[in-house]
Amino acid sequence: MATSTGRVTGTARDRAAGADGARGRGRPKKAGPVRRSMSQHWYAWAMVAPVVVVTAALIGWPLVRGVYLSLTDATEATMGRTIGVNVIPSTYGFTGLDNYVDILTSGLFWDKLIWTVVWTVACVGLHYGLGLGLALLLNRKMRLRSVYRLMLILPWAIPSFVAAFIWRYLYNSDYGVINAMLKAAGLGAVGWLDDPTTAKLAVIAVNVWVGVPFMMVAMLGGLQSIPGELYEAAEVDGATPWQRFRHITVPGLRIVSSTVVLLGTIWTFNMFPLIFLITGGGPGSSTEILVTYAYREAFTGIRNYSGSAAWGVIILLLLVVMALVYRRALRKQGEVW
Asked: What was the pLDDT predicted at 7?
């Protein structure tokens, strides 16, 4: 009897398991998040796909190629090339991190880095301060405000190479407009681009002239997004202009400020055309920043492609680290972006 009962119980259990298995096989599997996104937003993916492909071709492949070259000893003499019908194969080899060790242990790198940091901090600080001041002025009601805005935006609209050539002419020691004005005022001429100190001040001034309009436009947009009722309520409560600026304007511009300061830092850190076209990195190499020296390594003298690639990778890593630190600092302050 017990055996019969056990056999019946086992048969029922097997049937139940078989039914559950059949139901499991008949039930469709849940799609993963990627597949679900592709099925629901296929049109958006189709529109983005060409941009992704072009970006990968124009940025991804050169980046991978540059990282690879930085780990070799590739120079103009060891790179493969074709001369007429003769094909000369490449003879460079893998050297690992030797290029990075050579760069980071040289005093040249740290000299360039210090000047690049000074150049970036000075330019971005002046960009932000002057841009915010001009935005505060243009945010008020005044006559011909649109004309002033147009005139102040013009430096930003001029291409960088055009601005560089204009200012190089203005700084010319013999027939430059600036020295002509100094002579007319009874002062002596200044060799703006002949002395390391004046050359550094000259390129900073040009970059500030070019970059302030962007900051001004961004700050002006941020000011116009702050509700006017806040200023009216603060004025009714007896707040001074400085208190209104400190407790309303500055917090209201925090998100805009954090974004434009980061963008301005990245752009200024890599501002190649102004320095290269105005001073060529000179006199000597006193105004040369990291990116201009990397260019010099790759395209002047005996072209050191591997060394230039290593400089470029180091610059990229510096900017990535700086952006991550900056983003983390903003998160601690409660900013989300």
From this structure: 46
Least confident of 33-47, 170-184, 191-205, 246-260: 33-47
What does the pLDDT read at residue 91?
86
Instruction: Look at residues 260, 251, 242, 261 and name the one whose alpha carbon lies nearest to residue 223.
Output: 251
CATH architecture of 106-300: Orthogonal Bundle (1.10)
**311: helix, strand or coil:** helix
What phi, psi does 191 have (nearest 5°)? -85, 80
Q: Rounded to an integer, what distance in angstroms lies between the CA atom of residue 106 and that of residue 154?
A: 42
30: left (phi over 0), alpha (psi -120 to 50) or beta: beta
Residue 255 pLDDT greater than 50, yes or no: yes
Q: Pull the structure tokens for residue 12.
A: 């029922």
3-state secondary structure of 86: strand
Provide Rg for the chain, Cα atoms: 31
Residue type, 205: A
**What digits encode the pLDDT tens for the residues 81-123?**
777 777 888 888 999 899 999 999 988 999 999 999 999 999 9
Beta-strand (E) ranges in the chain? 81-83, 86-88
